[in-house]
Amino acid sequence: MDTETTYRVAVDLDACDGVFACLVRDDRFVEADGGLVGFDPADAAGPVERTADEVAATFSDGRVDEARTAAAACPLDAIAVEERDAADRRGGDA
């Protein structure tokens, strides 16, 4: 049975104000263009997704607690962490 846990970290770019409290708590967050937060693509388990409103990345590195700590430190509540299991990531087929 595959027990790998993956998780998606998303930043609401409309709420992000470049405070960067997340960077101090999780080194996968980086300063991106425009003075807002982003992710280093080398750290993500897939491509970094970027729209005008959101930047997100999926990880499977066992560091979900660091992501949650970074999200909790954001004074603007701009960061969401959503756990997914491997079956969800593959579209539901186990």
Automatic annotation (TrEMBL):
Protein name, per record: Ferredoxin
